[in-house]
Amino acid sequence: PKEIFLKHYKMPDYFFDTVDLKFSLGEDKTIVCSRITVLPRVEGVSFPLILDGQDLKLVSIKLNGEELKKEDFVLDSRHLILASPPTKPFILEIVTEIYPQNNTSLEGLYKSSGNFCTQCEAEGFRKITFYQDRPDIMAKYTCHVEADKTLYPVLLSNGNLIEQGDLEDGRHYALWEDPFKKPSYLFALVAGQLISRDDTFVTRSGRKVSLRIWTKAEDVPKTAHAMHSLMAAMKWDEEVFGLEYDLDLFNIVAVPDFNMGAMENKSLNIFNSKLVLASPETATDADYASILGVIGHEYFHNWTGNRVTCRDWFQLSLKEGLTVFRDQEFSSDMGSRTVKRIADVSRLRTYQFPQDAGPMAHPVRPHSYIKMDNFYTVTVYEKGAEVVRMYKTLLGSSGFRKGMDLYFKRHDGQAVTCEDFFAAMRDANDADFSNFLLWYSQAGTPLVKVTSSYNSETNTYSLKFSQQVPPTPGQPVKDPMFIPVAIGLLDSNGNDLPLTSVFHEGLLHSISSNGHPVSTTVLRVTKEEEEFVFHDIPHKPVPSILRNYSAPIRLDSDLTDDDLFFLLDHDSDEFNRWEAGQILGRKLMLSLVADYQQNKPLVLNPKFVNGMKSILCDSSLDKEFIAKAITLPGEGEIMDMMEVADPDAVHAVRCFIKKQLASELRGEFLTTVKDNSSAEPYEFNHHNMTRRALKNTALAYLASLDDLELTKLALNEYKSATNLTEQFAALTAIAQNPGEARDSVLADFYRKWEHDYLVVNKWLTLQAISDIPGNVKNVQRLLNHPSFDIRNPNKVYSLIGGFCGSPVNLHAKDGSGYEFLGDIVLQLDKLNPQVAARMVSAFSRWRRYDETRQALAKVQLEKIVAANGLSENVYEIASKSLA
Ligand code: HT7
Ligand code: ZN
Q: Shortest CA distance to 347 belongs to which of 387, 379, 388?
């Protein structure tokens, strides 16, 4: 397989001005005619024109109306090459035949539940027709679609509907025109039996936009929340960024077969149905929140991605990091800002930190790839969003907005790079960002150590920082990064001390704002070692470092446990209150893991129990915040901090703490469940959601005790629940413990929901992720369950992905988990390489485990790499994991 490098980027020799597509959709084959106006970049000089194409049957090719003969072009399995095309503008007409009904890869044109749909990002358009399938080729498209009218009554594409009508033989057609230039990855077509929920949004300049969400008929009632989310997103983007929608129509189509979450095709977003459909009985609060976020995300792409797009795929974070940042801010404004921040940082730590420390570590802007699909990663998305957030932390809201405005002013209608974004932020604010761009090019999570000292004679408080960026594949040595560290100092009552000035590099800098002292300041740490000294500090403070998680780093400070308990109680920065509890939790878990490994008895520190109790009983706190604060750090996070990851020990310790807390705080948890029960009808609003979150967390603690009374309580909650959030939480609580109650309630749930595949997927995940020893057998059995279908990515993510989420069973010491995964990856690869590659990633950190496990995992990776006909997708992940 060929590796592609950022440093080899070359401007195209030909631009495409207009593209007219004509699709004749059929059951046996689909015929695609394309008519492209080609403009040589330099007129008068001839270069070869290389068109991408894959799995296409070429029917004919014409140049300026003349049919080309075999000797006029070269055709291989990936390209169609015209050796010396005209040196003046010309028209290329290409006819191809494709077979969407056989396309199980779900990229290009394929069928889902009988309907036609497309997925072109990143490089799927080349499976539709021959084209320069790269994002810096931006053209104006028209799309004529014709199909059988009974089977495919709805025909959709990008832009505006210009014309439609009937044809002979029961067929009909629609002609769509997109007035905006776009890259091929934003092209979309949908044809099928669909019904829409319609609404109208009036933009702030008075444009009436028709909004339509398309699904199969019986699901239309489940699209109300998606429509509400879309309208909220449109309004929010106007208010916060001054960005208005630019067409008269915005379509969303929900499909059950989709490799990822959703796709931002211009004015025709295509969504995985799990991110559109919701009703109180079939979706949880978490689903409602994801729908809000992803509907927002795809809508926000209209500006950050579509109007301004990426020059090449290495720049993916330019649109994805920025758009994730925007959707995070949107969700924060719609709910609780702190809770959203906690959720986002937890996600970063759980998924991105391990990636950044493993064989697939890559910078936010990767330097090379074999298959671009493998780089739609938590690093490009989530770490990329943290990079964008740092601009805002450094520039403030209004400075950030100025940077965004300049970015659109300079680059609307262009395909640009991460430097262009950086330059807009810098120039709009006349800012000095020194080495900030290293965030795009250096992989690895920086480790920042802080030591503090107080001088009572000079009333100064010093913080000494040292930073280190760990080596990653291909990057053994790193430069120091530009790290914004938000700091506050607490006095002995827990109040923020006023900060007036800080001494740094020989200068005393005032940090007051408009003459007033501030309670939080952002230090710019840019060197390997650096000291900041705060003046006018009357007594020794407790520092609150990295407030609101101001940079994506690992922080190691000299805070004592007493300091951390103090911050947990008092910090005005709610994020750092939560963080203090997490640091205490991590320390506690690591020390108990050491005890467990040495066969010492496990004893829970009473101070930790008290800390948890005071949070649980603090009625002044947001309930969802409490739920997050009493949730222990994940097993993966702890394993990540160990020299050799020990899944069994970490699991045993986490269960021990959970049960111990449940038993010592039983009364408080019971009160929490009781006080937060409600018979009111389901509403997705902050008050009810936070109530349910806290109640469900308390119930999970209680049920972990596996005693009759508490199982009964959970069963009662299960039976009386009027919504899936509470019903599924009760089911999950009961399913923690093997036995009769678990089996019967799981069976009951399936009977109730077997008609709803999205709910059944949750049932699959719940069983797959179980840490009951030997669970691989259950998962193998479920592969043959009527509800499972290996061709549907959602089902694969639920069952196989769910299994990979259980450290105990995936890493079973007998190798059964690895063998199961190895076999299934090879089976999947034949059908859908993108999905197979996601699954094989679960092996990537195999070197973190003990020698026995390493040997067993390696056998599977070697088996995979040696397989005949392996896809580039799986090859890239498996071979890099072995390297
Ligand atoms: N921009 C979209 C990416 C996407 C995708 C990429 C590869 C393969 C399939 C895909 N489906 C969607 C999604 C987004 O980030 O908005
Ligand atoms: Zn996106």
A: 379
